[in-house]
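in:
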């Protein structure tokens, strides 16, 4: 049995899951999306992902033709149809089909599709050895140009940064904002640990308010860490005890080198490893249950 894709209210075969070349998601990157994970029959933070999707759509004035409850059902149905207990779910809503101009008023109905597939895990060595990062010349989108808090289909800012990291021969890119403050990586939020402090940039510097980020911030207290959202520069990362990244797909990944400076002792940090352990406990326990 091939993959079944949810497309505008129907579950269709992968080969039939096609959208129009006039869809503004394709022509202009005009749309929003979420990347969601399920663990052993539990969808992690589904409500938070749906809230963020509808908030991004609201700001872009994209009307989603499904209630949140109906969207939740569609996600669960897609998982069941594919008999997946551990999945990566990509939920996409585009402005829909319009004409060749960019006027969104010409698009009368948003397109919705949901892909649920096996999770492609990051290599184990990322977690064991840690990642190497560079800061890249591409600046994170200015919040008043295209706010990084919106999870839109326009990821070119991130893609350019990823190309620069790859060209530099490292795993990931750190993007600064126009003021030189650390924002985030191409698809992950960034944290540093110094003593008992766990710091991460506030959303207004220009980041996506990650759902894994929020989950990690909520866990910090149980590990005797004090969370602060603060504006900081690369120096704070270079001199931190530990640095790690968070994201739905990557979960929590240690960082061991930034711009050729080793971080801490150059190995994944103890607090980072403890957070990974706690995070695994909540992903195994919390979430919206579905039976396949
Ligand atoms: N920043 C960016 C730019 C991202 O694309 C993602 C992945 N969605 C994240 C951060 C992490 O967010 P989350 O924890 O909600 O997956």
């Amino acid at each position: 049995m091939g993959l079944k894709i949810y497309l505008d209210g129907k579950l269709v075969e992968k080969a039939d899951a096609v959208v129009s070349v006039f869809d503004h998601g394709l022509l202009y990157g005009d749309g929003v999306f979420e990347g969601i994970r399920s663990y052993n029959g539990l969808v992690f933070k589904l409500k938070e992902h749906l809230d963020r999707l509808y908030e991004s759509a609201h700001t872009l004035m994209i009307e989603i033709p499904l209630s949140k409850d109906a969207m939740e059902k569609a996600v669960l149905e897609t998982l069941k149809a594919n008999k997946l207990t551990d999945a990566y779910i990509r939920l996409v809503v585009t402005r829909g089909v319009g004409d060749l101009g960019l006027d969104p008023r010409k698009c009368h109905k948003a397109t919705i599709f949901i892909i649920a597939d096996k999770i492609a895990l990051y290599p184990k060595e990322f977690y064991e050895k840690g990642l190497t990062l560079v800061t890249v010349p591409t600046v994170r989108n200015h919040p008043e140009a295209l706010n990084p808090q919106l999870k839109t289909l326009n990821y070119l800012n991130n893609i350019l940064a990823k190309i620069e990291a790859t060209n530099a021969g490292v795993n990931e890119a750190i993007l600064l904002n126009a003021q030189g403050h650390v924002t985030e990586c191409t698809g992950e939020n960034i944290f540093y640990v110094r003593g008992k402090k766990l710091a991460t940039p506030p959303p207004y510097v220009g980041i996506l308010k990650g759902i894994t980020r929020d989950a990690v911030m909520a866990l910090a207290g149980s590990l005797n860490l004090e969370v602060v959202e603060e504006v900081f520069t690369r120096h704070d990362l270079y001199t931190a005890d530990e640095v790690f990244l968070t994201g739905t797909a990557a979960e929590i990944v240690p960082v061991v080198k930034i711009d050729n400076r080793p971080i801490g002792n150059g190995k994944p940090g103890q607090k980072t490893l403890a957070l990974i352990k706690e995070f695994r406990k909540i992903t195994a326990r919390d979430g919206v249950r579905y039976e396949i």
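note: The first strand starts at residue 4 and ends at 7.
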